Amino acid sequence: MGGIGGIIAAVGGGALFAVNHAYPFWMGSCLVVLAGIMLFAFIREPKEYESNLEEKPELWANLRLILRDRERSALRVFLAHFFWFIALNAIEAFFTLYAKNHLGYPGEHGSRILGQFLLTLVLFALPAGAIGGKIGRRRSIMIGLSVLFVVLLTIYFLKPETLTVVITALPVLGTIPVVGVLLMICGCAWMMVNVNSLPMVVDMTDDLRAGTYTGIYYLFITAAAIAGPNVNGWIIQLTGNDYSSIYVASSVFICLAFLMMLGVRRGEARPEHKLIDSVNP
Description:
By secondary structure, this protein is mainly alpha-helical. It has helices spanning 2-19, 23-42, 59-68, 73-101, 107-123, 125-135, 137-157, 160-163, 178-202, 210-238, 245-262; strands spanning 166-170, 174-177. It folds into two domains: 1-44; 58-269, MFS general substrate transporter like domains (Growth Hormone, Chain: A, Up-down Bundle).
């Protein structure tokens, strides 16, 4: 669903930007208000919640357990999340500027190409989950990270005149250049990482701590969302406003995430969470 929203924002926002630079912000404001109204109108919470006499572990207690764990699988996974979301933020935050300053595209065209990347997030979400169930979550994530690393470096080393060669054209998405195709490959690889990551976090602990681990998961993602644009913007400044440097920076952070995942030993589906695909005759 986030991918669908991203496509609407990229394609619709790009079209509105071409009309008036303020319109995408108005669209975002209206959608936030609409989301709040829908939440208030359709979500019904129980007046009384089930009580559990078992003591709920606090956030800091869980963090201490994660840090003291000799295996450090949970810590490695959370750090991997931090690194690969910084890499993703570099692409999402700076792609339109990269498209304008490095590829020579107008701003709305860069948003349209980013929409092509977001399209693959929607189309490959279910296949990525199926692959994770077939070969394992950790292996799927590491394959996805490997593909991301190779493709991001490929984008960096290819010349603008090669990246802008049009391959085909599709309704709504418009012309698809070489860079669009490469971003679509990145989208498929990213879903192999993203779809299998939260279930891996949840299955690293018991049901009692699953909610807290999910909160820590979002804590690291939010930290990456804060640090990512600042770190990558600093790298762009250091390279003399070379926006193609975001692909080198992203590759480095993807490599760090891959190294973190090498030491992960837990997080595959627990037996009680696996679906029964067949029954005995």
